[in-house]
Input
Amino acid sequence: MNSKVPKVFHKVGNHPMIYHVLDIGMSLKPKFVSLVISEGLDIYKSEIKKKYKNVLFAKQHKQLGTADAVSTALKEKSLRNSNLSLILYGDTPLITKKTLEDSIRKFKKKKADLCVLSMTPSHTNHSYGRLVTKKSRLIKIIERSELKSSYDLDNLCNTGIMLIKTNFLTDALKKIRNNNSKKEFFLTDIVEVF
Output
């Protein structure tokens, strides 16, 4: 994206993308909402705080990957005390409340530890990571940057949205390593440390 405006502050339907995500998240009436921001987003903090008074902010000083961002959020003790964590990305403004409610309902009904929302795009030329399944069970998520042409995978893709038991999340984050081409800590690797 070629812009001085951070991606999540680009407008979709007259509102920054991040506001759509926060609106949906808040509509679920969570105990806590934490927004992970990088160094450059401090200038937007007061603007966000005006509209979303109960949002907690966590600053990711170095962008070391999505797992590091979630670890940064979990430094807030109150978040670690919740039973369930819903992880949303600021650049997914079109997710619906119904989709999230249905996912939470199924998650609780199945007594799952982890749920990854997936999608199947109509084309294969996209930037999404792929889900690898075996007998209908998720065994791995391969980030787009790590996909090799030799992989023969379905077009089942990662939305980035996860539901996960917080105690499992806290433990699993400690096991994630940055053994990838970007040297980042990918939250998607949580599936393999499960």
